[in-house]
UniProtKB/TrEMBL annotation:
This is ABC transporter domain-containing protein. InterPro entries: ABC_transporter-like_ATP-bd (IPR003439), P-loop_NTPase (IPR027417), PstB-like (IPR005670). Residues 1-89 form the ABC transporter domain. Pfam families: ABC_tran. Keywords: Translocase. It comes from the Bacteria. PANTHER family: ABC TRANSPORTER I FAMILY MEMBER 17.
């Protein structure tokens, strides 16, 4: 799970942040195996070249965008089938947002990625399929209004309420 705001473990080094999930799951490994997991995960998150010389430094010392990529590296280190991202760019500047979106495109070849976003442009840029949820008029929890390929949702949605939201007529 990758949250809205980067959340590296504050008392851990970059190296230990990456291995936290494996250690939590009691995966015992040799130092060389741990080193390989750290390098592979950081490369997978396009962060290796930026941090390879300071793996023993705290993850909190990185920029916001780097911290978010560290959290992505930590998530993929356990080799999940599904990677859930809850507004992973909401607290980032445009350059870091672009880096995360590029990373999403790379990662979706190896992982099923579910991203929650309120940014319609981002949904159009990074997703293959889009689900539109909307609150009920009664204030009850929302419901799935439409789920289709992203191009269809943004060009010719099936549901009038989807069209109204995308065109800015409500929301």
């Amino acid at each position: 799970m990758v949250f809205q705001r980067p959340n590296p473990f504050p008392t851990m080094s970059i190296y230990d942040n990456i291995l936290a999930g494996n250690r939590l799951n009691a995966r015992r490994m040799k130092k060389s195996q741990a080193d390989d997991i750290v390098e592979k995960s950081l490369k997978g998150a396009n962060l290796w070249n930026e941090v390879k010389d300071r793996l023993g430094k705290p993850g909190m010392g990185l920029s916001g965008g780097q911290q978010q990529r560290l959290c992505i590296a930590r998530a993929i280190a356990v080799e999940p089938q599904v990677l859930l991202m809850d507004e992973p760019c909401s607290a980032l500047d445009p350059i870091s947002t672009s880096a995360i979106e590029d990373l999403i495109h790379e990662l979706k070849t190896d992982y099923t990625i579910v991203i929650v976003t309120h940014n319609m442009q981002q949904a159009a840029r990074v997703s293959d399929e889009t689900g539109f949820f909307n609150l009920k008029a009664t204030g009850e929890p929302g419901q799935l209004v439409e789920f289709n390929p992203t191009k269809k949702v943004f060009s010719n949605p099936d549901e009038p309420s989807t069209e109204a939201y995308i065109s800015g007529r409500f929301g």
